[in-house]
Specification:
There is one protein chain. By secondary structure, this protein is mostly beta strands. It has one helix at residues 2-18, and strands at residues 29-48, 51-72, 78-90, 94-95, 103-120, 125-144, 147-167, 172-182, 190-202. Strand 8 and strand 9 (190-202) form a beta hairpin. Mean pLDDT is 85; it is low at 1-24.
């Protein structure tokens, strides 16, 4: 028995040392990332601190930004997330379609805070819906009987959407997402559609 004890003990130690580590959970814990994509702003009348800017036009533009959040996986298939982001628009200014350009709106950047609820269709593929709060910082120009006036304003709204996220490695994931934003309140009509692609580092 003593002669067998040592080989058995060594075998157990070797088995423990060579055992594969537990699979990492990509969609669990904090993450940061970058995203870019397409954005379309559709504006009607926009109530600003300077007055009402009537645009009645739409414009396609590029957008890019950074995001950060935290994933919680309460069950094997369910993923819940809280997320914030800062996004910048490029070449997305809109003017009233008249020769005098009596109103102009230039969305400079925006903030958003949202939540996601997702389902793991495989261990590495997450399908999710999202919704949250939106805020846009915009430059405003109005030309009327009082003369040209320029300023900046903040507009609040909400967003809904969804997407799919795929774990590339234990720490890196890639995603594609669609969002609809409604920034209309107090007489403002401003709708925005976005398609965003992003890459995240999961800690």
């Amino acid at each position: 028995m003593k002669n067998l004890a040592l080989p058995l003990s060594l075998g157990a130690l070797i088995a423990i040392g060579t055992a594969a580590p537990a699979a990492a959970q990509t969609f669990e814990g904090p993450y940061v990332g970058a995203q870019a994509g397409w954005s379309q702003n559709r504006l009607g009348s926009v109530a600003t601190d300077l007055g009402t800017a009537t645009i009645d036009d739409s414009r396609d533009a590029a957008t890019a930004g950074i995001f950060f959040g935290y994933n919680l996986q309460p069950t094997a298939k369910l993923v819940l997330s809280a997320e914030g982001a800062v996004n910048f628009g490029f070449d997305d200014d809109l003017s009233r379609a008249q020769k005098d350009a009596s109103a102009a709106i230039n969305p400079e950047y925006g903030f958003d805070l949202g939540v996601r609820a997702g389902y793991l269709v495989t261990d590495k593929t997450l399908v999710y819906a999202r919704g949250g709060y939106e805020n846009i910082r915009t430059r405003v120009q109005i030309l009327d009987l009082e003369g040209p006036r320029r300023g900046k304003d903040n507009l609040d709204g909400w967003s809904v959407g969804g997407g799919i996220e795929r774990a590339v490695t234990d720490n890196i994931s890639a995603r594609v997402e669609y969002r609809y934003n409604d920034l209309g309140s107090g007489g403002t009509k401003w709708d925005r559609h976005q398609v965003l692609a992003g890459v995240a580092w999961n800690f």
